[in-house]
Amino acid sequence: MIRKLNKEDISSCARIFVKAFSEAAWGCSWTEEKAEEYLSDYVQNPKFIGFVSENEGIIDGALFACEKVCWNANEVHVDEMFVAPERQKSGIGKALADASKSYCKEKGLAGIVLYTAEAAPAKLFYEKNGFKVSDGVICMYWI
Questions:
Q1: Tens of pLDDT, residues 1-24
Q2: What region, left, alpha or beta, does residue 81 occupy, with left being phi > 0 and alpha being psi -120 to 50 degrees?
Q3: Tens of pLDDT along 85-112?
Q4: Widest Cα–Cα separation across the chain
Q5: What b/e sequence results for 87-119 when a residue is b if at least 16 CB atoms lie within 10 Å of its CB, and e otherwise?
Q6: Which of 3, 91, 96, 143 has its CA 20 to 30 A from that of 81?
Q7: Angle at CA 2, nearest 5°, toward 73 and 126?
Q8: CATH code, domain with 35
Q9: CA distance readout (Å), 11 to 5, 36, 67, 122, 127
């Protein structure tokens, strides 16, 4: 079951986030406390959009996003999407992505934007679910 995420879900989401992103493919090392702080920042955004997957009352996946102003029509920017490792490949990620697509359609938004690591398994998941690699957009950073 997919439902809207609320602030009370953050602790459960943080536990899943740590499991999902501490995999070797991501090269990350999270604590639950740091993950809870990280995810809580997103919920503070007044344009926050979030969904969780729940199975028998237990959260097993989540999507954290926000609506952003864009020149023609606003867009959904997905910040984080994750599924408990033991529940991956069971349709939860697709259901979460579909929930964000439905939100987009209901609100008449332009589309969905997200970033993922090129070498991570998530890229193939997103491509399989209709997302395209953007031409002409690069990610830049400063350290």
A1: 999 999 999 999 999 999 998 766
A2: beta
A3: 999 999 999 999 999 999 999 999 999 9
A4: 44
A5: bbeeebbebbbebbbebbeeeebeebebebeee
A6: 143
A7: 60
A8: 3.40.630.30
A9: 12, 6, 23, 23, 30
